[in-house]
Amino acid sequence: MSEKRKRTIDHQMVCRQKTDKQEADGQKNSSGIAAGHQEKGGAPGEIWKEALDLKPDPQEKQIALLAIQDAIEAKRIRNIPSPAELIQIQLQYITPSFWALQGGLLLLLILLLHRLPGQNAELTDYLWWSSIAAAWMGVLSNGVLGRHFSCRMAELEQSCYMNLSQMWTIRMTLTTGVDIGILTVFSGGIAARTETFFGRIAMYLLVPFLLSNVCCLLMISALRSGRRKYTLAALAVITALLAVSPCVVTEAYTTAYLWVWFCLLVLGAAVFAGQIKSCYGRMTRGEMICWN
Amino acid sequence: MDERQWIYAIQKGNKQYLQDIVEKYYDDIFRFCTFQTGNREDAYDLTQETFLRFIRYVEGYRDRNLKGYLLTIAMNLCRNFLTEQSRRGKREVCFDRKPDGENSAESDSLWDIYRAEDMLLDEPVESPEARLLERDVHDRLMEALSCLPQMQRETLLFHYMYDMKYREIAKITGVSVSTVKSRVKQGTEKLRGIMKREDFLDE
Q1: Domain residues for A148?
Q2: Going by fewer Cβ within 10 Å, which terminus of chain B is more open, N or C?
Q3: What integer is the mean pLDDT of A131-144?
């Protein structure tokens, strides 16, 4: 039998003797366990109160606190911004011109909602302008995203240990979120004035918005040009023409062609999702940075 | 200064508040670890490790309930510790006494070894009877708790000792509220039965 084990058993005996003595003296019930217990939800509440009296040994606690103090002194605090801070930072880097142009488009849409009802406008009249606005919103958003990849910015951002994917995600969420919010509200406005189902209007507006996003992402990833502004302007014209093209077809916005719109929406969403996935992949692998 | 401001200051590089947090919650975490493991020596180690982990990852702390967060770390450490113990063969021992009052795990039980080692560390017993009695209360509660499954034990500790709501316990333990309720109910009944059998409670 090992020395430790022998010593342990000796002490077990000591413990047991103490307990026996205690029981013999009738002290067991005065220990507070059995006496005057109250029940909390059927549990012996007095015992839990007793349990709260358990305190660590002051010496042991002091030793632990000293060890923890050492760890605190050795600790180097790194600044990890919270999601709210990250959004705040990215908001600072979105140019005022973007907000001004978005505000201009919003103003245009509000004016349309107020003016057109007085001119006995039909659904196509609303959709003509709002589809152009939706397409331009997509171009503007992607213009903001494209700034990450112009003038070797991506390389610079990565060199500064910034998380390019994270920044891109936040900016995309912010700009696209604003656009979708505006389009949703405007869809509601058109639906109310033309007595059309809201979902149908939303679909008519989301299709040009998605398609312009697809075109712009293609431009960001395929074209390498220092003259981004001109490319964006050209894209704005092309996507606007594409967006109004259904208005030329008389029956394009009738119920009979709803399935076509639905297919375009699904197709556009799928292509857009694929493009985003591809962009993240290239960012992670570094292709986009070298390419930039 | 409240806890949120402490955390904000720490994350901005002001480390002095870490010590304040440790001092404020040390006893709470120690108590949890003690009743969860059934051993004070291990509880000291686990409590220390809880705070070391908290310090290591304090930059990423985004929770609102600091005590709950620390208890979650402690709970996970205790779980790992108990799993490790059972893997080594020192499985959780229930010191259930036989109906005739004789201790069934009398000579080989881990618990008795722990208790004896505790007594050894405190020897010579310089404290008066009161200290012995107080320790006895805690030891016997630990004994009774050790008879419960680990999950039930931690749920009971959170519920009764820390007055946590079912929802809070569910969040910490990662189970549904109904599971927590069930664990509290079953654990309470089981604990009560053990205590009655052990003559903890008057009938």
Answers
A1: 96-291
A2: C
A3: 89
Residue A149 has pLDDT above 80, yes or no: no
pLDDT value of residue A226:
57
Tell me if A68 is assigned to some domain.
Answer: no
Cβ contact A77:B16 at 8 Å: no
Of B40, B48, B55, the CB nearest to A72: B55
Q: Is residue A190 part of a domain?
A: yes
A7 contacts in chain B (CB < 8 Å) = 120
Residue A238 scores a pLDDT above 80: yes
**B9-66 confidence digits (pLDDT tens):** 888 888 889 999 999 999 999 999 999 988 888 999 999 999 999 999 888 888 888 9
Testing the interface with B: which of A31, A66, A82, A85 to mutate, by most B Cβ within 10 A? A31
Is residue A48 situated within a structural domain?
A: no
Convert A179-195 to b/e letters by CB count within 10 Å (16 or more is b). bbebbeebbebbbebbe
How far does B83 lie from chain A, in Å, by closest CA? 24
φ and ψ at residue A40, rounded to 5 degrees: -110, 110
> CB distance B26–A52 less than 8 Å?
no
Q: Respond yes or no on whether ipTM tops 0.90.
A: no
pLDDT for residue B199: 64
Q: Please answer yes or no on whether A54 and B23 come within 8 Å at the CB atom.
A: no
Mean pLDDT of chain A: 77
**What is the total count of domains within chain A?**
1
Q: Tell me phi and psi for residue A43, to 5 degrees.
A: -100, 150
Contact in structure between A261 and A127 (CB atoms under 8 Å): no
- Closest residue in B to A23 (Cα) is B133
